[in-house]
Amino acid sequence: MQSLIPKIESQLATLRVPIALELPDGRRVASPDSRVTLAFKDWSALAKLASRQIGAIGEAYVEGKVQIQGAMRDLTDAAVGLLPDNPAQTQHGWWTHFLRGRKSHRLHSLHKDAEQIQFHYDVSDDFYALWLDPRRVYSCAYFKDAAMTVAQAQEAKLDHICRKLDLREGERHLDIGSGWGGLLLWAAENYGVRGTGITLSKNQYAYVNRLIEERGLAGRVKVELLDYRQLKPDQPFDKISSVGMFEHVGSANMRAYFDTIMRLLRPGGLLLNHGITSGQVDYQQLGAGMGDFIEKYIFPGGELLHVSRILRETAEAGLEMVDTENLRPHYARTLWSWSDALETQLDAARQVLERGTGNADRAERVMRAYRLYLAGSAMAFEQGWISLHQMLCAKPDGDMATGAIRGAQSDYPFSRDYMYR
Questions:
Q1: Residues 251/305, Cβ–Cβ less than 8 Å
Q2: Least confident of 165-179, 293-307, 402-416
Q3: 61 lies in the same domain as 201
Q4: pLDDT in tens, 243-267
Q5: For residue 174, what are the contacts with CB-CB under 8 A and spacing of at least 6?
Q6: Exposed/middle/buried for 281, CB within 10 Å: 0-12, 13-18, 19+?
Q7: Under 8 Å between Cβ of 271 and 237
Q8: Quick one: angle between helices 54-62 and 43-50, nearest 10?
Q9: Of 168, 408, 170, which Cα lies nearest the Cα of 267?
C-alpha cells in the first residue's frame, strides 16, 4: 500500500485537486490550496482513491472507513477533479450489464417496486422534513424568479405543472407517485379538481391522508396505497401528472407504463411527465462507481433513460408530445438548497433517523449516504451528466373538429401562451 502514496501525490499535483488526505498511518498529503480533507482509516479505501473510484470512496465514508472534514461543495469540486473522464459516457457499471441482456423487469415486479420505494421514502418523515420545503415537495423546483427561495420555487413548480395541464374546476386529476401530497393538494385547493393520488410509501400514504382530513378535502381528494399497474378507476381521468416517478419504473416496463397511462387517460386528455433523464443518449449509469453507490444506498432499482428514449416510448404508446422543457439547472439549484439545509442540521438528522430506524449505526450510515447523494447529485446536474425534463403529452381523440380550430384532437391549445398568463 505504501506504493500508492507517490501515485496519489502525483495525481494531486498534476490535477491540482483542492484536497488533503490523512493516511491511516497519520501522514498527510495535500495540495497547496486544499479546502477539504479526507481522513482514511483503511488502506483499501485509499487504493480506491488511487484508481479514482469515487463511488467506492463514498461507500467507505458511509461505512466509517473515511471521514470528511470540510464543506460538501468543496468536496464535490475535488471529486470532479479526481474523475478520469466524463462519468456519463462510461460503458462500465451495473446497468450496462443488465441493459445488454439481463432482464430489468425482474427488478420491477409489484413486490420489488414496493420494497424499493419503501427502502428510500420510509426511512423517516421527520428526516425529510428537516431539509425539504414545508410542503415536502421532493422533486425539482422551478425558479421562475432568481430571487426565489426553494419553498417559493416549489410552489412555482406546482403551479407550473397545473398550468401546463390546463387544469379546470371539476376535472378528474390523477397524480402517479404523489409523494407527500404537494401537487395533489395544490391542484385541488387552487384549481378545484377532484384529485386521486397513488403511492407505494406507507409513510407518505398516512401523512397525506392526515392532510386531507385537516384541510377538509375528504370527498374531493383521496390517496391510495397501490402500484400504478393496480389502478382500475370507474372512469378515465381528464389530466394525469407523474412527477419523479418514471425513474423507478424500469427500462423493461417503460412501454407498459405509458400503455397504462393511455388506459387511464380520457381521449383528448393531457399527461405531464416530470422526471430525471440521462445526459447522454447511450448512457446507462454514472461511472467511477457513482451509479453503484446510488443503487446500493439510495435508489435500488432506479434507471435513467435519455429524453429521446422516453419520448419514443410515449409515442409508441400512442401519446403525442406537445411540449418538452429542460429544467436541469433548476434541479442543480434545488439539490444544493437541500444539501445546504441538511448540512446545517446534522445532529438533528442523526436524532430523527435513530428514532426512525431504531439503530444508531444505521442512522449514521443513512445520514452519511444522503449527505453524499444530495451534494453529488447537485454536482451531476451542474455538470450535465444527468438532466430533468417536463414532457407534456396528449392522448389524441381522433376528432378533427375539436375546439375552435380543426385538427387539435386534444385539450392542448395551439399556443403555449396559456402556461404563462
A1: yes
A2: 293-307
A3: no
A4: 998 888 878 889 999 999 999 999 9
A5: 195, 196, 197, 198, 231, 233, 237, 239, 240, 241, 264
A6: exposed
A7: no
A8: 160
A9: 408
As a whole number of angstroms, the distance between CA 191 and CA 80 comes to 44
CA 152 and chain centroid, separation: 19
Q: CB–CB of 356/124 below 8 Å?
A: yes
Question: Please, which residues have CB within 8 angstroms of residue 268's CB and are 6 or more apart in sequence?
Answer: 394, 395, 396, 397, 399, 402, 409, 410, 411
User: What is the Cα–Cα distance from 180 to 214, expressed in whole angstroms?
Assistant: 14
Q: Using CA atoms, how far apart are residues 310 and 44, in angstroms rounded to an integer?
A: 40
State yes or no: pLDDT of 291 exceeds 70: no
Print the SS3 string covering 131-185: HCCCCCCCCCCCCCCCCCCHHHHHHHHHHHHHHHCCCCCCCEEEEECCCCCHHHH
Asked if 306 and 277 touch (Cβ cutoff 8 Å), the reply is: yes
Q: Where are the beta strands (DSSP E) in 244-368?
A: 265-278, 320-326
Radius of gyration of the chain (CA): 23
As separate numbers, helices (DSSP H) first and strands (DSSP E) second, the chain gives 16, 11
| Last-in-domain residue among 23, 56, 84 | 84
62 with 122, same domain: the answer is no
Name the β-bridge partners of 37. Answer: 20, 69
Query: Is position 89 within any domain?
Result: no
**DSSP structural state of residue 32:** T
Write down the pLDDT at residue 305: 87
**Residue 315 and residue 335: Cα distance in Å, rounded?**
31
Range of the domain at 60: 4-84
